[in-house]
Design a protein that fits this description.
Elements: H1 2-19, H2 23-29, E1 35-40, H3 47-51, E2 58-63, H4 73-86, E3 90-96, H5 100-106, H6 114-117, H7 119-127, H8 129-133, H9 138-158, H10 161-168, E4 174-180, E5 187-189
Parallel strand pairs: 1-2, 1-3, 3-4
Antiparallel strand pairs: 4-5
Amino acid sequence: MLSDLLANNRKWSEGRRNEDPGYFERLASIQRPQYLWIGCSDSRVPANIITGLEPGEVFVHRNVANLIHPSDLNLLSVLEFAVNVLKVSHIIVCGHYGCGGIQAAMDGQPHGVIDHWLQPIRDTAERYRSDLSSTPDVPSKLHLLCELSVRSQVERLARTPIMQSAWQVGREVHIHGWVYGLADGLITDLKCTVSGHPLPHPEQDAS
């Protein structure tokens, strides 16, 4: 019931004010997060909760399967604001195992307009076909593809004019690739951080 949500909100607000009377005044006065989180829309992967961050500490953009589309004005607007106005230091692209977008991209079934959205996942699967074909079972393939997709999105994000321009003027902004495990609640760092150095074109480093 929606009334339950409103009641929960009032209880949460009251609890915050009791713990720290000036909490909301400080939160309303300024926004200076260090992090931009680009994650999946999946309701089981809330950025603040799984990282233990408070409101105001992470700027968040979410979409199906945490994809970077160069024509996505929503994402680009968030990225530009985070980098140029908020001046975040770290951008985290976080996927998660068991992602419905990864599964839908690879199940061979029509899903409507989202099939266009999920094309970067199929592109990544084609790029790493040999790695995926040597993986023994479907769950393992999907886990690997989830990781490969996050790595690919980190690369795509690094190639955007917004990031290239920020690095050209000496901004210290780092892009990280993480994966969250629904089964254990743990985040894995994929060790694919990009910090401003040029990246090769995808076709040049395909394996």
